[in-house]
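Blinded run. Sample ID left blank on purpose so nobody reads anything into the name before looking at the predicted structure. Input follows.
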Amino acid sequence: MNPNPPADAPAGEPATPRPAAAGTTPAHLRPLQGGALVVGTIALSLATFMNVLDTSIANVSIPSIAGDMGVSASQGTWVITSFGVANAIAVPLTGFLTQRFGAVRTFLASIALFTLFSFLCGQAPTLSVLILFRVLQGASAGPMIPLSQTLLLSSYRTERAGMALAMWSMTTLVAPIAGPLLGGWITDNISWPWIFYINVPVGVVCSLITLAIYRQRETPTRKLPIDWTGLALLVIWVGSLQVMLDKGQELDWFGSTTIIALAVAAVVGFVLFLIWELHDTHPVVDLTLFALPNFTLGTVMLALAYGMYFGSLVLLPLWLQEYVGYTATEAGGVLAWVGLFALVFMPFVGRYSHRIDTRWVTSFSFLVFALVFWMRSRFTAGDTYWQYSLPTLVQGIATATFFIPLLAIILGGLAPTRVASAAGLSNFARITAGSFGASIYTTLWDNRATLHHEQLAMHITAGHAPSAAVLRMLQAGGLTHEQALGLINRLIDVQASTISVDEMFRLSAWLFLGMIVMVWLVRPGTPGSTSAEAAGAH
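Blinded prediction complete.
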């Protein structure tokens, strides 16, 4: 993102800044030095860490949140999806806010509001209030990640920009690993509101350091029109679709007039959004990018892959806690193993991937993802901790080879003035797909588990000899007839949910294999031509 376009820049696109007068460099472009550089880098990275952490820290806490608020676990997942959708919708506004108010002011406002709403999330008395504050928290966090990149790159000399982005990228890998572990430990040992309260001291420290170091490095501003109609239509169709996915199971899908109304709003809003954005002079989203085959294929693959990846991050801890008996800490420990290979391989991928055809690297990533989901499709409720953790460990290899090659496909061959728009649109698709993926995974899992429960329970009849034998054995052990039936029903629940979760993982494995075909529809690019843009966008 170019933070300081001239007044005559083309509408809707960042432009190249005018050269400074001879012998001078604008304050916001001068590299930092010494302690200011170190402390500034830490503050920007911490802000990114805090933001990314909140996408995963609640995953293992959903059963506790749902239990305390008297709702089902599937309803509890709204705490995750509401943040993601609001965050995705806010991302396209970053360019407008930066040019209107300046990168530093917008970044500070983003941190301050994110910190405030984090505190209010912990104070929420009901699920509806918690979801409201999560929406506001996600919306305020939208500009934080892209602007942390902007300020970080302005802090370093050009020749050290790659190292700065590598350090920044490490925080985006560590945060999803720390999220389940930290969230699980806090939920088990303190209480779930503290998964939000811990953002408060971090946000205050980051704000004070950013203000002290970057207040003299504000970027130029100018008044720009904003596409309010396009933004409203974006909120309508994305919000309607997300609520429909979240409440469909509860309201019996299209047997409910509410779900039908939401579906109509989503479809009509989406069609009007497409028409408006393609004809508006200052569109909030540059849809003309989809005329480029590589951008379209890359964005579709990124959205599908991330939707399945994030959906599994929500589904796996839910199943482990509800039906295997794991604590939130133990479930977080299973997910945390993804970081080992990811942290080891990520620097090598960033350094050498430009020497290899990105299609081979992406195909390898999808193949490893398919292997991981196939391994998970063989889970039983009686497996050991390491049997659950091994696929997550292997997944670290796929994660390390996932983002940079796909972003190179998406951004490859674009004019420099379109890179920021393309990165913003692809990130919007990725974040939205993650929220949709979480809802779809949990809904399908619940539906399939109900079906399998009915099929298994059909065998428990009065004249069924094996069932009668089990009932007699349980009653001989001291249980009443009703208690014995309740225990059998619980065992059926466990088996039904396990069959269902295995089906979801098996389907994901086949989808990842199928996407390898899409990879080879991409036109090959020039090696090394997009590494910097991909790193920056990531």
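Unblinding after everyone has recorded impressions. The two ends are 13 Å apart (CA to CA).
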